[in-house]
Structures are given as C-alpha cells and as structure tokens.
Amino acid sequence: MARRKTAAQQAVLEILQQNNEALSHEGISERLAAPLDRVTLYRILNRFLDDGLVHRIVADDGRQYFAGCESGCSHDRQAHGHLHFRCVICDKVECLDEPVVYHLPNNYRADNYNMMVSGTCGTCQSE
Question: What residues contact residue 15 under an 8 Å CB cut-off, 6+ apart?
Fold first, then answer.
C-alpha cells in the first residue's frame, strides 16, 4: 500500500534532491520555508531511509548527514559504494562518485561500510 506524502515530507525531499551535497539535520532545517519540529524531521528522514529515497552518512564525529538518492539508482550502491568527503572548514559533505574497491579475506562478507574522508575542499583551499 502506498503511503501518503505530507507537505513537510515533500519539502524535505525536494531539499535533499536539489542539493549536490549531504545535509545535516540542521542544514535541512535551515533550508525549510516553514519550521519543523526536530522529532518530525527525524521521523521523515528515517522513513526516507526505509523507502530508499535517501542515504545516511555518519561522520567521524558522529554527526549524521543525509543525501538524496538519484532516481532509478540502487539504494545499496548509493549508500555503500562510494566515498564521502567532509570539509573540516565549511563542514560541507559530498558524495564522491569514484567507486570503492576493497578485497576482504576469504570467508568474510561485508554487509555495510561507511567511508568518510575529512580534509579541506577545493573551495576552501582557494580562499
């Protein structure tokens, strides 16, 4: 059964799909035209995770960032098949398109991995 989409859900989804970077809870809140309760926003984001509309990136400091998945993409590939880069100056988090290739020893299987690289983005380096 299809779930109905509220105006708040639509607004959050549009923000995530229109940005080329992953956004923190605060970053999403700042971009919303109408304020949302923190709990409501977390519920919306968790629903989107369950539905495969977004993926979550956990930074080395524990902060969570969310990025929209491209239409027609494999959620597993979007969530777990690429690096994320977090600028330590501007706090921008980007999904890097280069695939990550890794080799595990025999008898090991990866179900999940989260790779975050921290450093200085090109914009901040040129300032």
Answer: 23, 28, 31, 32
